[in-house]
Structures are given as structure tokens and as C-alpha cells.
Write a structure and sequence with these properties.
CATH superfamily of the largest domain: Zn peptidases
Shape: elongated
Bound molecules: zinc ion
Order of helices and strands: HHHEEEHEHEEEEHEEHEHEHEEHHH
Distance between the termini: 51 Å
Strand content: 15-25%
Oligomer: single chain
Strand order of the largest sheet: 1-2-4-3-5-13
Number of domains: 2
Number of strands: 14
Length: 392
């Protein structure tokens, strides 16, 4: 039996455990940075299987790393495990965890016979707090040669870009007054927020293709007969490349200044979440994953699409060749819905987590046994980075 067949058999032998873990995380949804149950369960399972575990890395209580093997290359398998408010695991991160865990457990027995190691990284708060950005900043990818994970979806897709994202909160302050009796005494902070929305709408005509700006008013006054002295808006600003986004965000901040000037209010802003960079999927590693998927019997695979969402995996893809392929857990599903949450605990979801574990492990074996693949990925990564650093 060849290596890959043996690894598939090792993963199949763990199938019941992987399904149990996917369901346990699925049934105990935890929000970003509060994933105590999920991170304990995953790190504890790896520890029992002989992985060296570090808990609470990068100052994050629910982040962890688990390593097996020695030397290089070092292949990182990433686990996400945060859920969404009210909807639970409506992005299927419980399946991401089970797949990366399964791949690591399947590879471990073979790492005793190979140079190189596997590091499982538990990365909290993908949805809101961008745990991977903090791990990247703290150097947790410095000795990593490739980073891999899969994401559940309605389609099988090898490579998708994502938008870079900035998250800004704008606080306008004015002066309260009786809205009917002495409006001339008031300064309307809500007018500042409305002018911000109008100004951003005017800006849209002059922005690069693929930019997305979407906001909400989170505070807009307390009663119609009081001139609002405080109003707050939150915006996500996104663009296909970080260089473009820096340019767009600077324009949005100018609009906020203008909105304050024209209404006589004052404005202050801050990033309410960490920004993320756009995803640059590695061609050669994604294609290697695709060949392994085909060998595992998957036939309907799309190669590439431009995505408009955002993920902290983008920041990982800046520092190391990285893949973030998608596998279908049900036709027509839309992420962040109750139906998706159900599918992430259904039979197809669980089956796909095991399939993803095998395809990830087989791709890791390719990298551990054929150094030319990683060399090509490194060259391509340097090319991608230099292309990105251009202007608009
Ligand atoms: Zn997700």
C-alpha cells in the first residue's frame, strides 16, 4: 500500500473520533476569543496522540499550537472554531477543525519515518477578531513552510481571492438642544453620520472594481425632540488588494472629516476590529490539493474565483505560501444562515470533513517527500508579493 492509501486508512480509523469532535464543537457554539470548549477539546486530543502542545499562545487564551515530527519542512494545518451570534456554526468552522485535526492525526505515524513536521495551529476568532493576524504578528508563521486549511461551502473550489478589510467606527459629537424650542442652539451629530453615508455614496463612482463599503448606524440619538449630541456609525471597507484598500480608506477618512466640517460636529475614529489583508492563494499548492481531491474521487472541481468576502487567512498568505480551498457540504447553501449551520452538523458535512482531512494530509505528504513543490511555491509567493506591492 502506498503512503497516501495508508494515511487514508489511518484517517478512516479515526473517523468516529473526528465526527464526534465536529459535532461536539458544532453543538457548543462559542464566539470569537471565547472558544474554550473547542480549543480544549482539540489541543487535548492532539496531546493524547503525542503532539507537543502549547496553549494560550500569542497572549490569546483560546489559541494553541500542536507539533509532531522534527526539522523542516514544517507544514501548518489551521483550525478555526469560532461561531456566529445566534446562528451557531453557520460558517462550518467545526468542520475546519475536524479536518485539520484529522489530517494531523493521519500524518503523525508517518512523521516518525520522514524528515519534517506538522504543526496544528488553533486560530481563534476568524469571524470578528482576526486571531490569525495576531499569530502572524507574533511570529508564529516564521518557521512555517506552508499553511493549509479547507473551508465548507456550496461548491468545490480550489482557489479564491478575498478582499482586504478595514473596520472603522466613527463617533460624531455635537451639542444637545430642544429640537423644536431652541434648535439653533444645537449641533446635530446624527447629521454628521448622515453626511458620512452620503459622502461615501458619492465616492463609490470613483472607486476601483470590487471595492465594497458597507455601514450601519449604531447610535443615532435618543428621541426626536432632542438634537442628538452623539451618533456613531460602523463601516467595513474592503478592496481586492491591500494597496488599493489603504488608498480607499484614506478617502473615506477624508469624507468623515468633511462630514464633520459641514455639520459643525466633531468626529473621531478608530479601528473596532483588526484589519485583514487579501488572500493570495498559492497556485502550486492549491493545484496539488486539487490533484489529491481528484484521486479521492471528486470530479466537479472549479479552479479559481475572485471572492469579495474577507478572512484573516489573507494575512497568513502574505508570509507563507497558503491554501484555503472550499468543499461543498450541500448544493445551494449560503454561509451565515441557519441552513448552513444545520449542514455543518449533517451527514454530508461530516463526510466532507473526513474527505478534506485526507486531501490535506495527502498534500502535506507531497510537500514532505518532494522538495521541488515547496521550492516552486516559494518562487511563486515572491512573485505574487512583488505584484501586490504595485500601485492601484
Ligand atoms: Zn468561515
Amino acid at each position: 500500500m502506498d503512503w497516501k492509501a495508508q494515511i487514508s486508512a489511518a484517517i478512516d480509523a479515526k473517523r468516529a473520533l473526528l465526527e464526534e469532535i465536529a459535532l461536539s464543537i458544532g453543538q457548543h457554539p462559542e464566539l470569537g476569543f471565547h472558544e474554550v470548549h473547542a480549543s480544549r477539546l482539540l489541543a487535548g486530543t492532539l496531546e493524547k496522540e503525542g503532539f507537543q502542545i502549547k496553549r494560550g499562545i500569542a497572549g490569546l487564551e483560546t489559541a494553541f499550537s500542536g507539533s509532531y515530527g522534527r526539522g523542516r519542512p514544517n507544514i501548518a494545518l489551521l483550525c478555526e472554531y469560532d461561531a456566529l451570534p445566534e446562528l451557531g456554526h453557520a460558517c462550518g468552522h467545526n468542520l475546519i477543525s475536524a479536518a485539520s485535526l484529522g489530517a494531523a492525526l493521519g500524518l503523525a505515524p508517518f512523521l516518525d519515518r520522514l524528515d519534517g513536521r506538522v504543526t496544528v495551529l488553533g486560530t481563534p476568532a476568524e469571524e470578528t477578531g482576526s486571531g490569525k493576524v495576531i499569530l502572524v504578528k507574533d511570529g508564529f508563521f516564521q518557521d512555517v513552510d506552508a499553511a493549509m486549511m479547507f473551508h465548507p461551502s456550496a461548491r468545490n473550489l480550489l482557489m479564491a481571492t478575498s478582499n482586504a478589510l478595514d473596520a472603522y467606527e466613527f463617533e460624531f459629537s455635537g451639542k444637545a438642544a430642544h429640537a423644536a424650542d431652541s434648535p439653533e442652539e444645537g449641533i446635530n451629530a446624527l447629521d454628521g453620520v448622515i453626511a458620512l453615508f452620503v459622502g461615501i455614496n458619492a465616492l463609490r463612482e470613483h472607486l476601483p472594481e470590487g471595492v465594497r463599503i458597507h455601514g450601519i448606524i449604531s447610535e443615532g440619538g435618543t428621541a426626536p425632540n432632542i438634537v442628538p449630541d452623539r451618533a456613531v456609525a460602523r463601516f467595513y471597507i474592503r478592496a481586492p488588494r491591500r494597496t488599493q484598500l489603504d488608498w480607499v480608506t484614506a478617502k473615506v477618512l477624508k469624507v468623515a472629516e468633511g462630514a464633520a466640517l459641514m455639520t459643525g460636529s466633531k468626529v473621531a475614529w478608530h479601528a473596532f476590529e483588526l484589519g485583514t489583508d487579501n488572500m493570495m492563494p498559492s497556485d502550486s499548492l492549491s493545484l496539488a490539493f486539487g490533484s489529491n481531491l481528484q484521486r479521492l474521487g471528486v470530479t466537479d472541481i472549479e479552479e479559481f474565483c475572485e471572492g469579495r468576502g474577507s478572512s484573516d487567512m489573507g494575512n497568513v498568505s502574505r508570509v507563507v505560501p497558503a491554501i484555503h480551498p472550499y468543499l461543498s457540504i450541500g448544493d445551494g447553501l449560503i454561509a451565515h444562515t441557519a441552513e448552513f449551520a444545520q449542514a455543518s452538523q449533517g451527514p454530508q458535512g461530516l463526510q466532507v470533513a473526513v474527505l478534506a482531512a485526507k486531501a490535506l494530509a495527502h498534500t502535506a505528504v507531497d510537500l514532505l517527500t518532494d522538495p521541488s513543490i515547496l521550492e516552486a511555491a516559494r518562487r511563486e509567493h515572491r512573485r505574487l508579493l512583488s505584484k501586490e506591492s504595485g500601485t492601484l
